[in-house]
TrEMBL record:
InterPro entries: NAD(P)-bd_dom_sf, SDR_fam. Pfam families: adh_short. This is Uncharacterized protein. The lineage of its organism: Eukaryota, Viridiplantae, Streptophyta, Embryophyta, Tracheophyta. One of its GO terms (molecular function) is oxidoreductase activity.
Length: 461
């Protein structure tokens, strides 16, 4: 089964597929490694080295903890989790791991690839400590430990191959371990009887060792866990029940809604025909879609992507919300052509303060929200229109429309333009064609309602 640990969505897909197999799980070794020579962000907007070496492991482990506890209880065999770190974790200079990753991700400080790698390995150590505490609280017969495998030349630093790297490894050749030798400590901690019951520890050369001062800090471990939990929770997977069907809804980035919907259209049409229950697709937009100035949405996104014009974050956000409106119109037309018993509508949830604008928190933002406080909706209030359009009988048969405050409303002039909607569909189809389609089968799974919410919260509108 494919697994890309730099992507939280990939981790969730992997776990879902693994759990569906009904297999036991006694041993988990977290050993993905990347050294990013240049600054890059993951699909989830996290610095790439940290995302690959730590955050993906954090989510993978969290989602599999219960399964490991169940297996250990059922088999009476201790489960073991092994995080592969490095002595390089001690190279991280500073007392605030979370503050550093936040600052480097937001480009507030220069990117240092070695420091970023050291931080990711420190995160493995801190994760081990916090994880061991949680397993103990669960009374699970599962341990978690961390290892330094030793100095070994692998493909990890392939981006830095060259004269200097080759010379350094030649001079250090007497200190290097072979790959089997480097695997020895990992295997020892994973299976040796001498390590039974030992948890939350750091090992090197098949012996317990001491991590760095920061790596031993319980408060920093707890702080990193809370931070990681918050970041990983932004990819929310919710179970939605309505009658006899169960829908897994996964919030994702805005640029995936078009493709997600396109790949699920046929399934929704089949389900509606088989159950004689209308399927509904709801795109969450915003009144801010009307702030987009111009008559060429596709031309703008092409120009800003190619850096032909300066980036304006507000205009880019307005365009994304306009795209939701135009997508709804074109989608409704296609569903009608398919003669599918499925509708597509778009909603403005209202003005609500969520974590969407967290990067702009500060005096100005706080002042604006204070002055606008009487206009704000609570998150449940903001969800009302989405829920109304998704399930209310009064909206049966209605498609291609824009709703606000649980009533049909008028989108902007450009948002009502059928030609622009068709143009955007063709452009999106061309871009999305570069992504390979996968067929995912899940037994008798049925899909009845799909809610596409671009903002991973409701919306700031």
């Amino acid at each position: 089964m494919p697994l890309d640990l730099s992507s939280l969505a990939s981790v969730r897909r992997f776990v879902a597929r693994f759990l569906a197999l009904g297999l036991p799980l006694n041993l988990l070794i977290n050993n993905a490694g990347k050294f990013a020579d240049r600054f890059a962000l993951s699909d989830d907007g996290v610095e790439m080295t940290f995302a690959t070496n730590y955050l993906g492991h954090f989510l993978l482990t969290k989602l599999l903890m219960e399964k490991m506890a169940e297996t250990a209880a059922a088999t009476d065999v201790e489960g073991r989790i092994v995080n592969v770190s490095s002595t390089i974790h001690s190279w991280f200079a500073g007392d605030d791991a979370v503050g550093y990753i936040d600052a480097v991700t937001r480009r507030k400080i220069p990117y240092d690839p070695t420091r970023a790698y050291a931080l990711s390995k420190l995160a493995n150590v801190l994760h081990t400590r916090a994880l061991a505490d949680r397993l103990k609280e669960m009374k699970a017969n599962v341990t978690a430990n961390c290892v330094h495998p030793g100095i070994v030349r692998t493909r990890l630093i392939r981006e830095r191959d060259g004269l200097v790297t080759n010379t350094v490894f030649f001079l250090a050749s007497k200190l290097l371990k072979t790959i089997p030798q480097a695997a020895a400590t990992t295997c020892y901690v994973a299976v040796h009887p001498a390590v039974a019951g030992v948890s939350g520890k750091y090992f090197a050369d098949c012996n317990e060792a001491s991590p760095s001062r920061l790596g031993s800090n319980a408060d920093e471990a707890a702080k990193l866990w809370r931070f990681s939990d918050e970041v990983a929770a932004e990819e929310k997977e919710e179970s939605v029940h309505a009658g006899s069907f169960r829908l897994q809804v996964q919030s994702s980035n805005a640029d995936r809604h078009f493709l997600l919907t396109k790949l699920l259209m046929e399934k929704m049409a089949e389900t509606a025909a088989a159950t004689d229950v209308e399927g509904r697709i709801v795109n969450v937009s915003s009144t801010i879609h009307s702030w987009f100035a111009g008559d060429d949405a596709v031309g703008y996104i092409d120009a800003v992507t190619r850096r032909k014009i300066p980036y304006d974050p507000t205009r880019a956000y307005a365009l994304s919300k306009l795209a939701n409106v135009l997508h709804t119109r074109a989608l409704a037309d296609r569903l009608k052509e398919m003669k599918a018993n499925v509708t597509a509508n778009c909603v403005h949830p209202g003005i609500v303060r969520t974590r969407l604008i967290r990067e702009r928190d500060g005096l100005v933002t706080n002042t604006v929200f204070f002055l606008a406080s009487k206009l704000l909706k609570t998150i449940p209030q903001a969800a009302a229109t989405t829920c109304y359009v998704a399930v209310h009988p009064a909206v049966a048969g209605v498609s291609g429309k824009y709703f606000a405050d649980c009533n049909e409303a008028s989108p902007s002039r450009l948002g009502s333009n059928a030609d622009e909607a068709a143009k955007l569909w063709r452009f999106s189809d061309e871009v999305a064609a570069e992504e390979k389609e996968e067929s995912v089968h899940a037994g008798s799974f049925r899909l009845q309602v799909q809610s596409s919410n671009a903002d991973r919260g409701l919306a700031f509108a």
